[in-house]
Write a structure and sequence with these properties.
By secondary structure, the protein is mostly helical. It has a single domain, classed as Hydantoin permease, CATH 1.10.4160. The protein contains 17 helices and no strands. Helix 7 crosses helix 14. Bound molecules: phenylalanine. Phenylalanine binds next to helix 1, helix 2, helix 10 and helix 14.
Length: 459
């Protein structure tokens, strides 16, 4: 690795945990989780999602971080360093492409968040108390083509500016104070939602599995959600791990990130579902769900307008720390492997991604041929969300487990995780992680995919 140019590094273990949690916590928790859970029938989806977080997400998190830290490279370079001359770097390449394509629809939804932030400043959200009024606002906000593209573009520009600034100065600072505030605010909102009339029905919906809802489409969507939410399956955690020093405790860092992320997703479910039942909205409303349901809670709170401003501000920042990690994966590839400088990479890739984001931005009503039902029964944004966010991440994670479990090998993986001698976990625990990586993860993902292909139940 003598040719590696000097790389940035996190200022310490806490800085890393915050940055990685910043990547993981984002629209995946607050926008994607509730709407996927609503479409997947509630409690059963949540149960399968939690199982996947524990059995697949957490081990893959350790594996990605250890590969990143050992090689100090981007996803492609990491495989090149560990298995030179093989096909494995191609897997890293697919990860980089996946990051690019996820960013292209994620930035659109991040743009909606920004739009809601602006609307909350003008006081527009303060008096929306019915589901109908809220749906109308959502439709007018995202159905306006110029506005949808402009908001996406603003978000992309800010992401590019942060990534251009480099890892520790740009990314780390932002999360340090804001994540705890977001957490407290979510607690307050959950408290409000649960005490609304009919709120308890939402709780039951979220936690009581209805096994008659079981289908492979639900299993797939829960698997995709677990990986998406933890930023796994495309190399973001390889990239973030690559900026980690050898002293950091990976078990602790990876475990805390996964724990925080899952907690935030459940918390956001505790806000959305009670509120949804109390205003009589449909759990299956799709990508607009959160944006439609939230304003109705704000209007039922004292100082609701201020709470709305604060909430959308924090959500915008949470989204930003995730878009930054998506762009960072692609940028680090071009910087390390192609010798581009950070500025050129960030600007070029950001511009390309914005171009690809435009069809998604127009797919929520502005352009009927790209909107609901237009493409195989889907809108362009949801289609991309499924292809890249569920399928590509799942296949990526499966192949990555096969790599770590069978090619690189569990002994080397454990050595890399426990590089500082005092960082061991009890032997049975590390054996268990090994078994999950070698057998459980690849088999579970493969079985799901095969079943879906055979039965044709794609989405
Ligand atoms: N985990 C992020 C979120 O929940 C999204 C993301 C996915 C970021 C994949 C990086 C990689 O919002």
């Amino acid at each position: 690795m003598a040719s590696t140019p000097p790389r940035g590094q996190w200022s310490g273990q806490l800085g890393f945990i915050l940055a990685a949690a910043g990547s993981a916590i984002g629209l995946g928790n607050i926008w994607r989780f509730p709407y996927s859970a609503g479409e997947g029938g509630g409690g059963l989806f949540v149960l399968i999602y939690l199982l996947f977080v524990l059995l697949i997400g957490v081990p893959v998190m350790f594996a990605e971080l250890s590969v990143g830290r050992t090689t100090h490279r981007n996803p492609v370079g990491a495989f090149k360093a560990l298995v030179p001359g093989s096909w494995w770097p191609l897997l890293g390449g697919v990860g980089v492409l996946t990051g690019f394509c996820i960013l292209a629809f994620y930035s659109v939804v991040a743009g909606w968040t920004l739009g809601y932030l602006f609307s909350s400043f003008t006081g527009m959200l303060g008096n929306i108390s019915t589901n109908e009024a809220s749906s109308a606002l959502f439709t007018s906000l995202i159905g306006n083509p110029g506005q949808a593209i402009l908001l996406t573009a603003i978000f992309m520009v800010v992401t590019v500016v942060v990534v251009r600034g480099g890892v520790s100065s740009g990314i780390e600072r932002m999360t340090t104070i804001l994540m705890p505030i977001l957490f407290v605010l979510l607690l307050v909102l959950a408290g409000r939602a649960l005490t609304l009339d009919g709120g308890i029905d939402g709780l039951v919906y979220l936690f009581k599995p209805d096994f008659s809802e079981l289908s492979m489409a639900v299993v797939m969507s829960a698997l995709g959600q677990a990986l998406f939410s933890l930023s796994l399956g495309m190399g973001a955690m390889i990239t973030y791990g690559s900026y980690l020093s050898d002293e950091a405790n990976l078990w602790k860092a990876g475990g805390s990130v996964a724990g925080f992320d899952t907690l935030i997703a459940i918390l956001s479910g505790l806000i959305i579902f009670p509120a949804l039942f109390s205003v009589g909205a449909e759990p299956t409303a799709g990508p607009g769900l959160v944006f439609v349901v939230l304003p109705t809670i704000f209007s039922s709170m004292p100082l609701g307008n201020i709470v709305a401003i604060l909430f959308f501000m924090l959500l915008t920042i949470a989204a930003l720390t995730s878009t930054v990690s998506l762009l960072e994966v692609v940028v680090s590839y071009f910087v390390d492997e192609k010798g581009w400088n950070r500025t050129r990479s960030a600007v070029t890739i950001g511009a390309g991604c914005l171009a690809l984001a435009i069809p998604s931005a127009l797919s929520q009503g502005a352009l009927p041929s790209l909107s609901s039902g237009g493409i195989f029964g889907w809108d362009f944004l949801t289609l991309n969300n499924n292809i890249w966010g569920n399928y590509s991440l799942s296949i990526g994670a499966m192949l990555f487990c096969i790599f770590v479990g069978w090619k690189w090998g569990i002994p080397k993986f454990l050595e890399a995780v426990e590089s500082a001698g005092d960082r061991r976990i009890p032997l049975p625990a590390s054996r268990f992680v090994g078994i999950l990586l070698r057998f459980v993860c690849p088999i579970a993902v493969l079985a799901t995919l095969v079943y879906i292909v055979v039965t044709g139940s794609y989405f």
